Amino acid sequence: MAEPTAARIARSAAALESPLTDLAGFDDWFAEHGRSIRTTAERIPLAAMENWYQTPVTGDLRHRSGKFFTVHGLRVHSPGSAVPWWDQPIIDQPEVGILGILVKEFDGVPHFLMQAKAEPGNPGGLQLSPTVQATRSNYTGVHRGKPVPYVDYFRDTSRHRVVADVRQSEQGAWFYRKRNRNMVVETTGEVEVLEGFRWFTLGQLHLLLSRHDIVNMDARTVMSCLPHASRPEGSLHRTTDVLSWINGARSLTTIDTERIALRGLDEWRHTDMGHSHESGGFFDVIGVSVTARGREVGGWHQPMIEPHGTGVIAFLVREIDGVPHALLHARTEPGYADVVELAPTVQCVPENYAWLPPAARPRHLDEVLAAGPDRILFDTVLSEEGGRFFHARNRYLIVDSDVPEDPGHPDFRWLSMDQLTRLLRHSHYLNVQARSLVACMRSLEATRDSA
Amino acid sequence: MAEPTAARIARSAAALESPLTDLAGFDDWFAEHGRSIRTTAERIPLAAMENWYQTPVTGDLRHRSGKFFTVHGLRVHSPGSAVPWWDQPIIDQPEVGILGILVKEFDGVPHFLMQAKAEPGNPGGLQLSPTVQATRSNYTGVHRGKPVPYVDYFRDTSRHRVVADVRQSEQGAWFYRKRNRNMVVETTGEVEVLEGFRWFTLGQLHLLLSRHDIVNMDARTVMSCLPHASRPEGSLHRTTDVLSWINGARSLTTIDTERIALRGLDEWRHTDMGHSHESGGFFDVIGVSVTARGREVGGWHQPMIEPHGTGVIAFLVREIDGVPHALLHARTEPGYADVVELAPTVQCVPENYAWLPPAARPRHLDEVLAAGPDRILFDTVLSEEGGRFFHARNRYLIVDSDVPEDPGHPDFRWLSMDQLTRLLRHSHYLNVQARSLVACMRSLEATRDSA
C-alpha cells in the first residue's frame, strides 16, 4: 500500500526549506526575472484595439478570430433579493482552460513547479503562477504564440499520477459560466526547469501567500484542490445535510439572466473609452494596449474589467468541538453555471453599498471590519486574475469569531475544513474566493510553525 | 454514535417480508386500486390541445400559463462523432421538480412509502412511484389541482432526517437540461397512509423491480441515490483517476446546441398530428387527450414524446479482485447540463442504427444481445417517465462479462459499485439509465437471497 497522497502533501506543507529553492533568495530571483519579463498596459479607446471589434448595433466586444472571449451585456432578474433587477457587462469565455501545477518529489518531499509570470492586469508586475495557465486557444495555438511549456503533462496524464483534477468556476459577477480545469499532476521523470520557473515546497508557497500580491489567483485555486488531511475529524452538520442545504438553495433560488447588447445596458455610460456604471461604482470595461517583453508575443490589445475599490473577502472561523470550522455563505451570482455556490462569509467591495439599499449591506461585514488584531489570523491583499482584470485587489481576511452554531440566517452555515476539502474534489461547490481562503487557511499551519 | 444510515438501509434491503405489506397481496391491491384510478390517453391533433398553443412561425408547443414545459427544436453539432450534425425536437422544462420517498422505521426496519400512480404514458396503467413526484408547477398549484400529498416533508426538512438529496438529470436525448431533486426523507412522526399509498421494505421494492413495468423511473432514480454499503471495498481505478477521466471528457468534448424552430427541423416531417423523423425511426412528438379518474384533475391535454422501438439498456459487470464492477460509458447527450455523464455500457434502440452509419453502432451491443441465459443476471422491461413519454420501454439487462480490465476504448471504464454509490451523492455524474441499473444491481442481492 503506497503512502496516501494527502500524507505526502502534508510533508511538503511542513517543509519550509528546500535544497532546490532558498526563500531568502526569492526577492532577488523575482526582481531579476522581472527585469527581463515585463508587461505594461496602457488604456486605449475600445475602437483602437487591434484584432478586436465592436459588433454593430450591440457594441459587444469580440476578437476577430472568434476565439478568446466576448464582452456582452447581461440583464439579471433576481426576484426576492435586495436588488431584484440590474444590468451589467459580463465576459463570456466558453472554453475550458487548464490551470495546472506539476509536482515532483525531491529528497522525499513533493515540490511544486511555479512560474514567475507577468500579466497585464497585475498591480505589481510578476506574480507566482501555476506551471501552466492556459486557455484552450493558448495551448492549441490560435494566437500563434510559442507553445505553452509543460502543457503536455496535463493534456495526457496517462504516464503520470493525477493528484487533483476538477473544473471550477471563476468570478460569477464578471464571467458568464467560465470554468477552468484545476489540475495537479505528479511526475517521476526528469523535468527541465525553464527560465522563470522554480520548484517550491507547499510550505514555502504557504509562506509566500502571506505576502501581498505574490501568489496569483490561479495558483491559489489549484492549491485549494489539493488533498488535505484534516485532524481531528468531525463536523457540526452531517455532510448529507450540507449537500441538501446546497441543493435546496439551488432548487429554490431563481436568478434569470438574459443576454443583451453591451451598449443597451441600463444605468451604464457608454463612451469611446469604455463602459462605466452611472454611479461611478462597481467596475469599468476598458481597452488596453499591452507591451510584453519575454512573453509569448511582443504586444497585443484586449478588453479588461477594471473594478473600483479594494474588496473585502473574509472567513469567520471558530472551533466547534475542537474542529476548525468556517462560516460559508450560499451565494447567488449571475455567472454561475448552477445558481448558487458556497462563498466566503463576507465577499464585497464596501464602497459599492453606498449606492445600494441598506438591506443589501452584507451580513458580518461590520464584524470583520471591526475585528481587533488579536482576532485576525490572516490579512493579506491578493489580486485576481491579471489576464482579464485590471488591478482587481481584495483584502483576504481570516477572523476568529464567536458567531453561534446557528448563525441566524438560512444562507449561512458552519462547515468543517475537512468538509470543504471533500467538496473541493467536485465542481462548483466552492466559489473562487472561498477557494483562495481555503488555501490561506491551510497556510496558517505553516506560518504558525515558522513564527 | 447512531447506527449508520447505510446499515439501516441494508437491513431494509434484507427484509423481504413486512408486517405492513404482504407482497402476495400486491397484485390484488394494484388491480383494485387500478379500477378506481385509471388514465387513458388518446392521440389528438396538436392544434386541438386545450391550453396549449403552437407559437406562430416556429410551431413550438407551449402551455398558455407559460409554465410546465415547452417543446422546441434543437440543432446539434457534435464534431468528431459518428453523427456530427442533426436536428431534433426537445422538451424544455426548466423547473426543478421533487421526486421524494418518505421513509419511516417499523419494528426497526426502514419502510418506504410508495404510491400506485397512473400516468398517461404508462404502457400498462399503474406503476409504483415515489411518495411525491411533482413539478414545481404541480406543488405550487399552477394547474389548480388538489394539493400534492406529503410534499411538505420534502419542502421543509428541518424536523426530519435527510437520507439523500441530490439533483439529477433525466433523458438528455429528450429533455434540455432537465433536473429533478431526488430526495429521501425519514420521519419518526405519525404518517397517515392515504388511499393508493403503501409502505414497502427496500427488499420488497427490489423484488418488484424484477417484474415488467411495475417500479417506475422516478422510483428507480430515487432508490439509486440511497446510501449503500458495498463489501468488499476496493476498485480498479483510484477515484481521483475516475474524476479526472470525467473531467477530461467534459473539458475536451465539444457539443454545440442551438435552439431552432420546431417546424424548422431538417429531416423531420411536420403534420397536424405531430412531428416525426423522415426515416420513421427515433421518436415522434404527439398530442394526447388524457382522461383521468381519481387523479388531481379529471382530464387534460398535453404533448408527449413517443419513441419507436424498445431500447436496450445494459451493464456489463464482472468482479475485479473480488469486487463487483460495472463497465460505464462516458456519454454525450445534447440535453445534459454538463456535456458528458456516465451511462450504461449499452444504451440504444437497436432499430435506429439501420439509418445511421456503421461507425455509430454501439460498442458491446452485440455482446449483450448474444449473451446466454447463464450470463444474464437481470432482464426486465421497465418504462420511462409516463408523464412525458408515451410507451417508452426499455429492456434493462445486467450481463456477466469477461471484457478485460482495459476495455480498449477511452470512453469506457470499469467502476466499482461502491464508486458509483459515492458519485451518486453528487449531481450529474450518472445518467438516468445508469441510475436505474444501479437500483437493479442492488436488487440482485434480494432476489438471490429469495431464490
Automatic annotation (TrEMBL), chains A, B:
One GO MF term: lyase activity
Domain dTDP-4-dehydro-6-deoxy-alpha-D-glucopyranose 2,3-dehydratase: 26-226, 240-441
UniProt protein name: NDP-hexose 2,3-dehydratase
Organism the protein comes from: Streptomyces fructofermentans
Lineage of origin: Bacteria, Bacillati, Actinomycetota, Actinomycetes, Kitasatosporales
